[in-house]
Design goal:
This protein is mostly helical and 201 residues long. A hairpin with a 5-residue loop joins strand 1 and strand 2. 67% of the residues lie in helices and 2% in strands. It contains 13 helices and two strands; from the N terminus they run αααααααααααββαα. The relative contact order is 0.09. It starts with a helix and ends with a helix. A two-stranded antiparallel sheet has the order 1-2. The protein is globular, with a radius of gyration of 19 Å.
Amino acid sequence: ALTFAFLYARRRYGELASILTSVSFAFSTFIIVWLHFPHASVAVLLPALFYGIDRVIERPAYKQYLLLSAVFALLLLNGHPESAAHSLFAALLYTAFILVMKKEARSFRIMAALAGAGVTGLVIASPFTLPFLEALPRSQRMDWLQSQPKATEILRNEWKVLVPYFHVNFYGTIRENNIWGPGIAEVISGYPGILAFSAFF
């Protein structure tokens, strides 16, 4: 997290700004809270993913292709497919942004290299992903999702579920006996709601 956040930022900013970026990312609440879980193992690779995309767009050569393929494979192999999906979604948005901003990035060679790196990473990780996809329909998570009411029913009956998407939900949730505090990892990992996306743009 520290190394690739620094390398990614250094391509654009000065040394001090890159150090601050690196430290801020690597010691962020999400990574520290989930440090002993596979969530963090995947999340720490996000700067490496952006760095790899930048390198391929800048010069779609063999070494850059291998770096990006390796990062894609590590995302999938680190054991938390949901975080890998989030990272890949962020990578798609990032790539789309660059393709819109830089006309030279729209060449067929660059787009083929990016897509090829993704496919290569998927093939490398297939000893993990194929058994995972086979087991997914029989998993505890899938059973839980099927037993829950549909999102449309929740929204129709309880509009309050939307509130956490619009306010900063950092300090904790109300529990039994009116205890208020950061008791679960999802709450204390710093999820700031949809306002964070607005601030980003």
